[in-house]
Every structure is written in structure tokens, then in C-alpha cells.
Amino acid sequence: MSRPDTVSPQPPAQQHRCGFCAVVGRPNVGKSTLLNRIVGDKVAIVSPRPQTTRNRLTGIKTTGDTQLILVDTPGIHKARGLMTGRMVATALRSLRETDVVLLVVDASRGLRPEDEDVAALSAQAGTEIVVALNKMDRVKKEALLPLIQRVADLLPGREIVPVSALTGENVADLLDTIVSRLPAGPALFPADEVTEQTERFLAQEMIREKLLLHTREEVPYNTAVLVESFEEKPDRGLIVIRATIYVERPSQKPIVIGEGGARIKEIGRSARLEMEAFFGTKVYVELFVKVRRGWSKDARVLAELGI
Ligand code: GDP
Ligand code: MG
Predict the structure, then answer these.
(1) Which-ligand-closest: CA of 25?
(2) Which atom of ligand 1 is least distant from the CA of 48?
(3) Is the entire prediction scored with pTM above 0.85?
(4) Which residue's CA lies nearest to atom 10 of ligand 1?
(5) What is the DSSP secondary structure assignment for residue 56, as one 8-state letter?
(6) pLDDT tens, residue by residue, 185-211
(7) Which helix (H) or strand (E) holds 85?
């Protein structure tokens, strides 16, 4: 995890807290939903299918005097017994890089052996651990108490917070608990930033990569791709992406489109295959080509592209 140099205006460092929190837990326990709920913006893909999130994605929650950088970490949930030595080492390293580990457990399913493995791994990393018992909206109070007791036995002295990422219940308490464990320090990201690396940006990069691959030297390297819309349709297990490829000159447009649209079709197809593998869900890609003279000098486009 790289700590960028970006620094925003803020109160004196001794009052300000800032740190990283790794969100860990088995697939489908609600990590992405919780991350989105905390950040208050959609930053991670949520889907009823397990393991939708393949990469580390961060959500950033900035308040007046704190900045919490959340990391969605798939992979760590893997049962420890099934991990090779190197995988354990990698998992431990990424856990140690963070200030707090947020272990998310699906309270409606109780504590599973994998949860215990993740808990043990987190404890071994020696990092602060906060446990979120998620999906409390699906659990009766009588069932919640014994679960809290079991987790307390497993991780003595750690904070255990029942929450519902879906309804938002107790999420503010959970956030306070996490933030109170962050070290003092200045903000690392601008206050208005919610995520470091959104799926939208990743989609854009994947399309751009395919565009360059299929057009080779025929279109200049600075051809831009702008994802106009990125819609998740979890009920249909689908992501619909509409993107525009901006070329500088009219002569470049037919090159990108190709004979009878063959090239743009191939760019879309190969980008779709990569995105489907990455996001773990079906993807529908629609591409448009537009000529935008001097787009690279257009401030609005540059801002949208995050350049
Ligand atoms: P992840 O794999 O851990 O990132 O889990 P997701 O965030 O993708 O959520 C998996 C499923 O659980 C989705 O269908 C969510 O809508 C659902 N879910 C997440 N949080 C809650 C919750 O607090 N209550 C209920 N009832 N469902 C939840
Ligand atoms: Mg997820």
C-alpha cells in the first residue's frame, strides 16, 4: 500500500488521526456493503456472488479531524490451513501494513472455521482488531449474545460491534470504534476523495489497454477513454459500462472503428472478457468513438479523466 504525498489543509497533527483499516472476512459476509455504507458512496462492487472484489480497493472516509482509509482485501479470508507458507506471509504482511483490522463476520451464519482462521491470522499480525458482526438485521438478539461471547473468547479484549451494513444500524458506532484506534497523523488524501482506485477507473484503464493493443501505432498513445456510466445490476449479475474513446483527429475515428466496426467490436469484446474475469460478474460494454480536437487541452475532460 503506497502512501501518497498528497496533503490537504487540516488541523494540527496532534488532534488529527489518520490510518489504514483492512476489511477482512469470508466472501459474502458484507464487506463491500459495509465499506460503501461507511464511506457513504459506492466505491466497491457489491454482489450476491462471492469474491466479486478481486483487488484491493480503498474507500476513504474523511471527517473534520480524522481520515480513515479502508482497504477491501480479498484473499485473506482463505482458510489458513489451505494457504501455502508464502500466502500466509503475504497475508500477514498486508495485515501489518494497516493500523486496524476490521474482521467482518456474518452474524446470521455464525462463526465459521474460516472466521476463526482469519481471526488467528489477524491476531498473529499483532494489529489492532475490531470485529463487526454484520447482518444483525437477520439475527434475533438471543442468538447474537452467544455469538458475541464466542468471538470474545476467541479474541479477548477486542471491540465487537454488531452492525447491519444493509440498514446502517450501529455503523456510526463501528466507525467511531475504528477511528479511535487510528494513530495521530495528518490526512494523506484530499478531503473530497472517496476512493483511490474505483472500478470505474479500472474499467477505463482496461478499455484503454485494449484500444492500444488493437490499434498499435495507428492511434496516438494519448487517446483518452472516458467511462460515461458504470451501472451495477446485482439482481441480474451484470455490470453495464458505457465508454467513449476520444480521438484527436477525424482521420483516427475510422481506424478505431475498423472495417464494418470489426475493430471496435474486438476492443469491446476483449475488454469485456478481462472485466468479467476481474469483477467476477457478467459485463456489458458499449463503446463510442468521438472526435474531440485538443481534448488533451480540455480542462473539463482532463478533470473527468483524473489527469
Ligand atoms: P463481500 O463478499 O463480503 O464483499 O459481501 P457483499 O458486500 O458483496 O455482500 C454480500 C451479500 O450480503 C449481498 O447480497 C448484500 O446485499 C448482503 N448483505 C450485506 N450486508 C448485509 C446486512 O447487513 N444485512 C443483510 N440482510 N444483508 C447484507
Ligand atoms: Mg466484496
Answers:
(1) 1
(2) 14
(3) no
(4) 28
(5) -
(6) 888 776 766 654 567 777 887 898 889
(7) helix 85-96
Most informative mutation of 33, 55, 199 for ligand 1 (most atoms within 8 A of CB): 33
Shared domain for 252 and 147, answered yes or no, is no
Local structure of residue 306 (DSSP, 8 states): T
For residue 28, the CA-to-ligand 1 centroid distance in Å is 6
Identify the pLDDT of residue 190: 67
Does residue 184 form part of some domain?
no
50 pLDDT higher than 70? no
Q: How far apart are CA 100 and CA 20, in angstroms?
A: 6
Atom of ligand 1 nearest to the CA of 167: 23
SS3 letters for 125-149? HCCEEEEEEECHHHCCHHHHHHHHH
| Residue ranges near ligand 2 (ion) with Cβ within 5 Å | 31-32, 53
If you average pLDDT over residues 29-40, what whole number do you get?
86
List the residue whose alpha carbon is closest to atom 19 of ligand 1: 30
Q: What percent of the chain has pLDDT over 70?
A: 77
pLDDT exceeds cutoff 70 at 303: no
Domain harbouring 110, CATH code: 3.40.50.300
| Strand pairing category for 17-24 and 66-72 | parallel
pLDDT value at position 192? 64
